[in-house]
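#struct-pred
JK: can someone run the complex with guanine? inputs below
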Amino acid sequence: MSAHVIDGFSVAASVRARVADSVRSLKAQGINPCLAVVLVGEDPASVSYVTGKEKALAEVGMIDKSYKLPVSTTEQELLTLIQNLNADPAVHGILVQLPLPAHINEARIIMAIDPAKDVDGFHPVSVGNMVIERPGFLPCTPHGVLVLLREAEIRTDGAHAVVVGRSNIVGKPLAILLARKACNATVTICHTGTRDLASITRQADILIAAVGKPKMISADMIKPGAAVIDVGVNRVEDPTAKKGYRLVGDVDFEPACKVASYITPVPRGVGPMTIAMLMENTLLAAVRFAGKE
Ligand code: GUN
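RT: done, structure tokens with the ligand placed:
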């Protein structure tokens, strides 16, 4: 058996194309969707994510308001910038790239963002709306995973979904989304306190790896025929690669392909979906703003 490899790159391209169409018609009505992207410091992975976001904004025709701040930026300076962006009617979405330098309190920054502009879906108001199934902004990576499952026609209704990882950005919100009525999965969350992880992952019809440890999900942890979604993006040194590193997921891909029925690759799996869903959220923010005016 060889798993069907889900092409996240092409699904993401079609999401962006749909967003670009809607942006054109919004512009015709005089609304110019705009995202403010805030990067503090020069963490190489963050710089590369932000570059990807800027490229996507240009592609879908949205205004890109970027702020590249030095690592020495104080928490107060960042809070002041966010207050200004909250008050600016030309800005529809605000994204502060995480992680922030250690001297800045991440929770305080997230909570300063107006929930109406919280296109990352990280503000407690957005998280609460997601949990109680009210309209709001869904976090981009978990939402992108749902879109990939839907596009690949992987049935979630009644399926046992096992999520390995409980981060605020991926594991926890994805577990909630899968358990909501629209997906209707039975969900197990595994984490560092889980005993005999393999015995649980082997029960998964849908296995989600969101840990950040290269190749930690081996083939023998996967139930034959399962759908495997790899959210991990890990840089591993590779002197033969142009950049000196290559990206690998949390799943040991080649052996896993022999066991799973569906699998997402790294790169070109979940990664491009995150940015595509960010474009969709920014569009939604602009539409909602226009509706309110
Ligand atoms: N860092 C890693 N993933 C994300 C994300 O989705 N949004 C932001 N703001 N920072 C991140």
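RT: quick notes.
The chain is about 40% helix and 15% strand.
Residues 95-98, 120, 140-141, 169, 274 surround guanine (CB under 6 Å).
JK: thanks, will look after standup
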